[in-house]
Amino acid sequence: MINLEELQAVSRDVFETALAACNIQQAFDRHLHFEDRTLVRHPSSRLPPITQPLTGFKDYYIISFGKAALSMLTALLERLPEKKHLHGVCSAPDIPKQRNRHIRYYAGGHPLPNEDSFAAARAALSLLKHAKKTTFVFFLISGGGSAMLELPSDRAISLDDTIAFHETLVASGATITEVNTVRKYFSAVKGGRLALAAPQAEKLSLLLADVPLKDLAAVASSPTLPNYSTLSECFVILERFHLLEKFPTSVRAWFERLRRESATQPSNPTGHTAPADRPEDPQSAAAFQHAQFDTLLSNHDFVNAARDRAQALGYKVVIDNSCDDWDYADAAKYLMARFHELRKEFPRLCLLSSGEVTVRLGDHPGCGGRNQQFALQAALDLARYEGQPLAVLSAGSDGIDGNSPAAGAVADTTTVARARAYSFDPETTLARFDACTLFTSLGDTVVTGPTGNNLRDLRILIAG
Length: 464
Prior knowledge:
Blueprint lengths: L3 H18 L2 H8 E4 L2 E4 L8 E4 L5 E7 L3 H11 L6 E7 L10 E5 L7 H14 L6 E8 L2 H4 L10 H12 L5 H9 L8 H4 L5 E7 L22 H10 L8 H13 L22 H6 L1 E7 L1 H14 L3 E4 L8 H15 L6 E7 L14 H13 L7 E7 L11 E5 L2 H7 L4 H6 L3 H8 L2 E2 L10 E7 L1
Parallel strand pairs: 4-5, 4-7, 5-6, 7-8, 8-9, 10-11
Antiparallel strand pairs: 1-2, 2-3, 11-15, 12-13, 12-15, 13-14
Helix pairs in contact: 1-12, 7-9, 13-14
C-alpha cells in the first residue's frame, strides 16, 4: 500500500505531466505550418489540410491577448514567413524583456482589467480600422482575455466602474458562460466586435479554449465570433443574480439604456446583435464570412494527457466532467461520493474531473481560489477515512488560483487533523475563503507560477 506522501507525489506528477504535454509550440506544429507563402492548416487527422495562399496579402496583423498571449505570439512569429509588413498588439500578464519591434505590448490586468487593458483594446481597434482586403489578421485568443483586452461600449464608463463591473460578475456565482454573456453587451471588443472592426480583412482566430468545446463563443467573451446570445438572455442573468443593483451607476445606466432601445434593435444575417448605441454595420455579414477558427488546445487535451499518465502509472482511470460550472461545495460532494463508490471496485483508482467550479465570494474574502476551496471541502470528507491512502488535488492550468500565488492544493486524509494542530479551524477557513493560508502552512499548495497556458482546471482524486 502506498503511503500518503507518495500518493500526493503521484497526484502532483499526473498534474505536472499533463501540463507539460499541452505545449503551445507543439500545438502550433500539429495544427498549422507554412509552405513558402502558403498557410496549411490541419484541423484534424480525419480531415484534409486546408491551404490558404498568402501571396495576395500586403499586410499582416496580429492581435494576441489572454494568459497565453506571449506563448502564442512567440510560436506564431517563429513560424510566420513574412515579417516585413507586420503590425500587432499583445496584451499579456507581463511585458517581455525581448520584444518584436512591430508589436505593441501591454500588461493587461486579470482577473480585473487595468489601464493597459483599456489601452490594448484601443490600440487593437485603431489598428483593425486600417485593415483592407489585402490584410490578413491573426487573432490569438486565450482565457483571461476578457479582462486583459477590455473597453466599455459606453466610453463615459470609467476604468474604476469597469473594474467594479467585472469584480461583481466574477463574485456573483454565475457560470463563466453566463458571465461572458453579460460582458458581450458591455464591451466594445467582445461579442464579435473585433471581427467587425476589420470587415474586409481575412481573419484566422487561433484559440486556447478555457471553456467547454461546445461553447467556444465563451473564450474571452467571443471577440471574433458572432454573438448568438440575446439581450433577453443577458437580462435573465442580470435578474437571476440581482446584478443591476450591485453595478456602479454608470454601468447600470448603460444596461437600462440597452433595455429601452432593445425593441428597435436590428440583427444581422449572421445572428450577431448590433450594439444598441450604433446602427448595424452593413458589412458585418462579410466580416464573419472572411473569418476562420481553429482550436489549438483545449481542456480535453489537458485531461486526456492526465489520463494517459495515470494509466501509465498503473491506475484505473475514470473521467467525470459532469460537475463543470457547479458550485464548488456541490461539486466536491458529488465527486467524493463517486470516488468512494468507484474505489470499492477499483482499489487503485484515479478519478479525473476537468473544467471549473464556481465560488460565490463573501464581503471580505481571504487568500485563495476555487481550486483550494474545492480541495479544502474535499479534505473535510477525507478526514473520515484516516489511515486510508486517499488524496485529492485541484489546480488550474494557468498556475493562478484566484488571488493567491498558488495554482491549487492537494489534500489527504490527514489534512484536517494537521490543520487543527496548527490552530486552524478548517470550516471557518472555508467560510472565509482563506484556504491558501491553511494549505501554505501545511506545505500542500501546488505552485507552478504563471504557466503561459490556460486550459481550465483539473481535479485528481486518487486512491492507492
